[in-house]
Design goal:
The protein has about 425 residues and is mainly beta. The protein has a domain of about 190 residues. It has five helices and 32 strands. The strands form four sheets. It has a 26-stranded parallel beta sheet that branches. The longest helix is centred in the N-terminal third of the chain and has 19 residues. The chain is globular, with a radius of gyration of 21 Å. It starts with a helix and ends in a 12-residue tail after the last strand.
Length: about 425
């Protein structure tokens, strides 16, 4: 009888944990432990003893025993494979704004371990967002520009930065248990690099357990391609956490975006997630697929200790922006502390066709000043009525962050999973 009771207790515990994980990032244990770093400016990194510069045109392996510095724009070319051992440290040079570009046909195998991640960071003593370039991966998967090809220029060599093609199953390698810190350099008159740029990248590429922190641009910039990604972390980026455009087809699961009222930009165009089908309508082939993001178990939050005051001060904008012609299907996700939670492009008509393209189901909207609005329109009654319908199982709450999440202010091992029972919050508080 005692053994049977113990079994029931175990089953009850597992069921309770399962209930806890229904919305937002999930896992019976905190999958952020061991490989992430939430205070990278406090970490003492070793000095570089190897230089990476120019073109890498033959397959090369980077070893954990060395520390590498990226000097200037470094291109992996000629279908070469760059293999990086777990635990390897690569430092982006501040003076030359080091950037790693994996050109079309080449691939990167950065396969770290939970206990031994691969780290890309800055070589400045006082590290700041935008210290170096970032990582750019260019593939041959479809984009929706005319000719199915484009070039990622900024200050890069245009002959080495083309991307796009017809290979949705393209394979640009592996990024797993990788951290990218303080990237996102500004290029005068051209824009800003992202922590990780994925342009025309195909679905055989493995993208798991990647953390981009303190990026001067977007954390993850996704231009076209066909991607599967899980356990991505964007932490206190200046611009967007996740930006999708050029017909990207992306399935994003169990991922996190943490913004700061005082570090993340509060200007228009900076949010957790931007889903757009194009930058320039004139360059877009509308016979091709437009951007589609299928996102599940995503947690997006502003880590403010007084979110209402920050919203009132104008420091907080929307969490998600969905542009004209783009599609977003989001399930079992958490949006906490924004103004509002979601903003739809003013050109998006509120009709059956568009509401089928923009779905929010089993969501947890918390501490948001309004939930779903159309841009420049303060009347959102139709949208609230639609997404508030019980058939979608969306939940609304006004709980403090400390009550909502397990332990987000733990400096070493924060836990951004929902507190047990929060998913049962009243749906009447809109």
């Amino acid at each position: 009888m005692k053994k049977f009771t113990q079994i029931i207790c175990v089953l009850f515990t597992v069921a309770s944990m399962s209930a806890q994980q229904e919305k937002g990032i999930m896992g019976y244990t905190n999958w952020l432990n061991n490989w992430t770093e939430f205070k990278p400016n406090k970490v003492e990194y070793s000095e570089a003893n190897q230089i990476l510069a120019g073109n890498i045109s033959t397959s090369t392996k980077l070893l954990k025993k060395n520390v590498y510095v990226l000097q200037g724009n470094v291109y992996l070319t000629n279908n070469a494979v760059l293999t990086i051992e777990p635990g390897t440290l690569i430092i982006g040079d501040f003076e030359t704004k080091g950037t790693l570009v994996v050109t079309k046909g080449a691939s990167i195998i950065a396969d770290g371990l939970e206990t031994d991640p691969i780290v890309f960071t800055s070589n400045r003593s006082q590290k700041k967002a935008g210290d170096w370039g970032g990582i750019v991966i260019l593939g041959d998967a479809p984009i929706n520009k005319f000719g199915n090809v484009s070039s990622y220029n900024l200050d890069l060599d245009p002959t080495l930065t083309t991307y796009g093609g017809d290979n949705a199953a393209g394979n640009s390698g592996i990024l797993r248990f990788v951290r990218i810190e303080f990237a996102g350099k500004k290029v005068k008159g051209a824009g800003t690099f992202n922590g990780l740029t994925l342009a025309g990248v195909g679905n055989k590429t493995i993208l798991e357990n990647i953390m981009v922190s303190y990026s001067g641009g977007d954390s993850f910039g996704i231009f076209g391609g066909d991607l599967n990604a899980t356990k991505l972390v964007s932490y206190k980026t200046i611009n967007d956490d996740y930006k999708f455009t050029q017909g990207a087809q992306c399935r994003l699961h169990n991922s996190l975006a943490v913004r700061s009222s005082y570090l993340s930009s509060n200007k228009d165009g900076s949010r957790c997630m931007e889903v757009a089908s194009y930058e320039k309508k004139s360059e877009t082939d509308f016979t091709k697929k437009q951007t589609l993001v299928i996102a599940s178990n995503i947690t997006m939050l502003n880590d403010s200790e007084n979110i209402n005051a920050d919203i009132q001060s104008g420091l907080v904008k929307e969490a998600i922006y969905v542009a004209e012609n783009a599609s977003l299907q989001m399930k079992r996700s958490v949006i906490s502390g924004f103004n509002p939670a979601v903003l739809l492009d003013s050109k998006t008509e509120i009709n059956d066709a568009n509401l089928k393209k923009i779905k929010f189901e089993e969501m947890f909207f918390n501490q948001c000043k309004g939930n779903i609005f159309t841009e420049f329109n303060s009347n959102n009654e139709d949208l609230e009525s639609w997404y508030g319908n019980s058939v979608f199982f969306n939940v609304y709450s006004q709980s403090d962050n400390k009550e909502t999440f397990i332990d987000i202010f733990n400096p070493k091992r924060p836990d951004f999973r929902l507190q047990l029972g929060k998913i049962t919050a009243s749906s009447g508080n809109r």
